[in-house]
């Protein structure tokens, strides 16, 4: 629906905000007939810089790894091609990891997109709905014959991510300013992201742990999840993994899959 | 998606929340939370950007609950796009209404600006022409917001860097008409007046003389930065990244002498200083408010 007559100003003002190739819109002016070029550029700069800053706030580890100049050049391209569609900036940048994956200057850092995915999941966990995590006592109260049918309700903040690289170690080493030791990036790592009682925590899952967590978070019963995890990793420790997931706050409740 | 229940036309009693009077406040920044909670409550209020608390849960809401226990709260929206030609985002309006209902803030404000066009959100307070058509549109948007939140909104005057050739009204004339038509209150940003006056070559004092001060229920003070325009002349930028300028303090005192004490916010959003620095700016505003406490009854209100 085109705007009413007299309300076309936004359609004329907006297109050049993120497109430096366009000239200053005709409809604006400085006072007393002065030029409006540098004046309009203030808005261009505000828009571009604030959106790059928003990406830097969501992806601090990526920025630390690449350095600020690299990051801001990469983010500027992304901001111009994919400006936010929501006024909630903490929702912005969901397609930034894919952008990084395809970015020609980041090809020698194949793990960088997975680090970004972890940072995006961290922020989603941070803003997720509040819920009281499942108490470990609830599991202890279940009789052994019903364990295989147990179904767990995931906490709204719980997420699981898999990487072909050492994304968790790289993420953890770059979320603050502490010195970074040499990391072997080629070790595949899986991550569990939770927000227990207070803050977001990112844990590295043992072999089979991601398959196990994926099954449980998808509502599959404990027996089925354990079988799948054992198939993925023969050394998989069911008791340690379920205790670890509960302790991390991955679930809010459990129920017996058997409706009776 | 939730929808806004339409209110019967002209039947809406808009009531201001209990006035908090001539109190100075500061922007709330999460990094200051430990310092704020450690000190005894000092009677100031805190202002937050509404959009930062529109997530479902987590630490932001926990911090806001903690702040709100001992301090009045001001909810300052920055993304409603009231000045834009497009219909308001119903989902965003519902989120805004939800925050007002949950936190019962003492003050609720938004901007005379726009930030969204088509599907893009530009994250800046963009300017609009002042015409009969935009006046109708802005009033319609404010009516919708006030119907949703069931109370008057305080509308903030913008800082601008350029003008629209099609504008046919002065900004003060436009804002006065908006307030009269919608019953909204006003948030007077004195730094914005100073910045815009410098950028457009008019007198800040003349602007304030034309501004409907009796409708002002909150004041903003902030720092600005200096650049140059195409002709090399001074162009002021509303940067919110430093202390309030001396000239802005002088204008502020003139406003308070005429209007009487109203809640006053020190707005500092980037290059955020340590909490004591921000507190000292608020104390300077409080000293001016206190000098004029007897000059006018606090909480003077206009009929809604």
Question: Can you give a write-up of this model?
Answer:
Chain A is built from eleven helices and six strands. Chain A has helices spanning 9-13, 37-58, 60-66, 68-81, 96-102, 112-127, 136-140, 167-174, 209-217, 222-232, 238-248, and strands spanning 28-29, 150-154, 159-163, 189-195, 200-205, 251-256. In chain A, the strands form two sheets. Chain A has a three-stranded antiparallel β-sheet, sandwiched between helices. Chain A has a two-stranded antiparallel ribbon with strand order 2-6. In chain A, helix 3 (60-66) runs antiparallel to helix 6 (112-127), helix 3 packs across helix 8 (167-174) and helix 5 runs antiparallel to helix 6 (112-127). Chain B has nine helices and 13 strands. Chain B has an eight-stranded parallel barrel, surrounded by four helices. The two termini of chain B are 31 Å apart. Strand 1 (28-29) of chain A pairs antiparallel with strand 8 of chain B.
Give short descriptive properties of this protein.
heterodimer, A: 260 residues, alpha+beta, two-stranded antiparallel sheet, elongated, B: 304 residues, eight-stranded parallel β-barrel, two-stranded antiparallel ribbon, 19% strand, globular, disordered C terminus
